[in-house]
Amino acid sequence: MSKKRHEPITITRNFYQLGTPAFPVYLSLGDNAMLIEGGTGATFAMIVEQIKELGIKPERIKYVALTHTHPDHIGAVPHLKRLWPHLKIAASSLAAKLLKSQRMIKEFRENDRTISEIMINKGEIAEMPPELEHYHFEVDKVLEEGDRLELGSGIVWTAYHTPGHSPCHMSLYEEKEGTLAIGDATGFYVPEKGVFWPNYFDSLEAYCNSIRKLSALSARRGALSHNTVVDGWLKDYLQKAIKATESYHLEMVERVSKGEDPEKIALEKAQWVNSLTDIQTFEVMYNLAKLMLARSQSEAGKKKLFTI
User: Does the pTM exceed 0.85?
Assistant: First the structure.
């Protein structure tokens, strides 16, 4: 089976989308360059081809900045480091700790393999990515709130902790062009349908606080970690994201309070998510739906979460 070709997409003169729409990686250019997001094992070779197609010399790429440590956001990292050892991995301090865990690496390998199988079945790649003897994710540059990654020519990315989706989540803002690398801080958005699946897997309150934090920035566009770049209506997008979160949460709380079986609710939600996307298995979606239902139940009494 031949692989589907994905061209690099120009967002601005200094910012490009690589990988696939479902699993994008972003390339920021100054005098030096930086990748944002760590891709999947399946998109590694594709990313390398796209960088060559753009005429970017690998030695120009200084950093790979990770928004968080979920398997579908770090999969290309060990392959890229093996090919280009000069790359420095940048991530939050908690991400740096998590990426040292052997349990995390085991779970990553299982999930990354599953994603590759899904992509083969969809014709997006021709074969499984090569297995490595060792998978290394060591973080070279720990980013705290307000830390800056300077690429030259006025391109400077500032780090913002945006937990809620995951405890280690970080977003990045580049002021010169007004680009905000949101990661998964606003959930999973399906632009064709205008639909959000909120993703407060770690904390509903932290998730809403992070959306508020991002809304306070003067960004013009938002690069999401799945599906699209929101350009020209970012403030409205963030407002819609938090309203969708409120609606999802209140539905969960109300249905449980009326005596509905939580397992049945989670199954229904997983089926709905499965109708929106096929980037993970149904089992993964079901487990995440159960997790969010538990988060909603534990934070049901909290007030003023959903205002910007």
Answer: yes
